[in-house]
Write a structure and sequence with these properties.
Length: 179
């Protein structure tokens, strides 16, 4: 006794359902899928086009924070004052008393307008009174020139479509990137 699987129904059989074509998609279904794909692709392309600028700004902010931490660590290690001087108009900063890693005969200067960053310094307030020089004492704490107990030390970097803020804790000297 063998089993046979009936795969089609004939409309000639008694009680059979009329044949309905189920293979393939209708034109409406295909158009709907293409519209959904087009919308998703346009969203993805818009995000990808902003992506390089976003990453450049984030990388620049992390570089500034890392260099501030380097100056703080050197102040503690050497038991002396270390300064980081920002030039807002040129979008550069320099770690005074530190030599460039690649060119030991040159000072450590970073130009944020050059690749790979391509960003600008929008605002600097490093002493609580709008100053552009951050000095770390021998304990790694920022030297604050004003009498404000809650001075907010900050650097704001500007990219193409957004800004990133770097905040320096007035009590510890640590730099934090706020996106």
């Amino acid at each position: 006794m063998g089993w046979r699987l009936r795969t089609t129904w004939s409309s000639e059989q008694a009680g059979a359902l009329p044949l309905r074509r189920t293979a393939g998609f209708s034109l409406l279904e295909l158009i709907l899928v293409l519209v959904v794909i087009a919308v998703m692709a346009s969203i993805g392309l818009a995000r990808l086009s902003r992506s390089p600028a976003h990453h450049q700004l984030t990388a620049a902010a992390r570089r500034v924070a890392a260099d501030l931490d380097l100056a703080r660590q050197q102040a503690v290690a050497l038991g002396t004052t270390r300064q980081v001087r920002f030039d807002k108009s040129a979008s550069t900063y320099a770690l005074e008393g530190v030599a460039d890693i690649n060119r030991p005969d040159k000072p450590y200067v970073v130009d944020l307008t050059l690749p790979p960053y391509g960003v600008a310094i929008k605002n600097v307030d490093l002493d609580g009174a709008g100053g552009s020089v951050l000095a770390y004492d021998a304990h790694g704490r920022p030297v604050i020139q004003c009498d404000l107990a809650e001075a907010e030390l900050k650097i704001v970097l500007a990219g193409q479509s957004r800004n990133v803020r770097i905040t320096i804790d007035a009590s510890t000297g640590r730099a934090y990137v706020e996106e």
